[in-house]
Amino acid sequence: MIRVLLVDDQPLIRSGFRALLCAEDDMTVVAEAGDGAEGVALARLHRPDVVLLDIRMPVVDGIEATRRIATDPDLDGVHVVVLTNYGLDEYVFDALRAGAAGFLVKDILPEDFLHGVRVAARGDALLAPSITRKLIDRYVTQPPHAGPAAGLTELTAREREAVTLVARGLSNDEIAGRMVISPVTAKTHVNRAMTKLHARDRAQLVILAYESGLVTPHSS
């Protein structure tokens, strides 16, 4: 059973998501919160599999709430998915940097919403290649200025290659084809790189790849 925490300051939005989730045999809503501070407290109390978290909320906003959940060692394995009305705007980008596993737009189709929750709960590829490419576009127009990521020197040549391909928007299957390996081996390279770089998910792996200089926005 996938245990979900809903955090949104609009009761009507929460009730709509709750109705969708509770209609599924494999999902349940363990709690609801109307602001980020309450959301963090309930995440610590219930340890859900997925936290669906609005970005723009009173008291504590979604970015700070995401950061608190992502950095709490007792909440390891809790996946934050941010909710937005605006697509990949600056707030979503900041939430991904803070540790969110991905995001969902509130006007998404119900079946896509439910699929996104299941993907997040599994901890699999939480960013579709199309979203990864939007992250890349952000770096093209506004390059970051950070130093090398800790653990970069620990990557093997194959792991570095896999990270580079993730950062260019390729899925595990596409990485496997490019590296001439199986999809399982590709996923293993990516997961090991995530562990060494202390990245919670593919979103942070992409960001670290660019911030460390492993990949540059205009590289081919």
TrEMBL record:
The HTH luxR-type domain extends over 148-213
Query: Which processes are annotated in GO (biological process)?
Result: phosphorelay signal transduction system; regulation of DNA-templated transcription
Tagged with keyword Transcription: yes
The cross-references to SMART domains, in alphabetical order and at most eight, read: HTH_LUXR (SM00421), REC (SM00448)
Q: Tell me which residues bear 4-aspartylphosphate.
A: 54
Mind listing the GO molecular function terms for this protein? DNA binding
Residue ranges of the Response regulatory domain?
Answer: 3-121
Q: Membrane-spanning regions, if any?
A: none
Determine if Hydrolase is one of this entry's keywords: no
* A Pfam family it matches: GerE
Alphabetized, the UniProt keywords read:
DNA-binding, Phosphoprotein, Transcription, Transcription regulation
Listed PANTHER family: TRANSCRIPTIONAL REGULATORY PROTEIN NARL-RELATED (PTHR43214:SF24), TWO-COMPONENT RESPONSE REGULATOR (PTHR43214)
Name of the protein: Two component transcriptional regulator, LuxR family
